[in-house]
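Page 47, continued from p. 46.
Same chain as before, 243 aa.
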Amino acid sequence: MENNTTLQQQLLEAGVHFGHLRKKWNPKMLPYIYAEKKGIHIIDLNKTVECLQETALALKNIAKSGKKIMFVGTKKQAKEIVTECAQKVNMPYVTERWLGGMLTNFNTVRKSVKKMQSIEKMLADGSFDNITKKERLQLSRDRDKMEKVLGGIAQLGRVPAALFIIDIGHEHIAMAEAKRLGITTFGMVDTNCDPNKVDFPVPSNDDATKSIAIITNYITAAIAEGLAERQAEKSDDGEEGED
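Result:
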């Protein structure tokens, strides 16, 4: 982890401190606001660094324990970054739209994933060779539609242990489902949201691509560290077992 001054400088350059217009603010964000300039709230980057490091450490420990962390970012600015980061650490992600019940009705969602996977398998192994071109085209389209929404959670066998969310206001359905199931939530919280709704808030600009990228990359690096430590411990245990 970099020292705090370097990190703060990087956050500043990425525009993480720019909040929303004052008239859009949520008063509960007051502890995280440094000042107001030209009617826009400026986030206190000291607080962001503190919260970001706390979040990173907690997520690192979850990853180290072998549990899954789901990345959620369906905003246009977040999709690509979230997909890339989640894939880097082999974690599930949702970037298209949040299907109501994705967590609270997980078994039904798993059935859709299985259906998608069986269509994929049949298209690949030639099982569909005896159906008409039109039918095959329809199945391919169905598969593509499902892949778009469910592709990021295809390998998820059970409900994740945590959610990392870009913009908790935008992803309020995901937040509500996580709360109902007692899943730990981590999220980028802008000045127009209530930070008390998320277990680990990171006060930050959740609209700018650069800001989303720096925060998401930072926590992804922490998750990668946790996974590497888990791997190292496993190898050590393996070696001890061989004596």
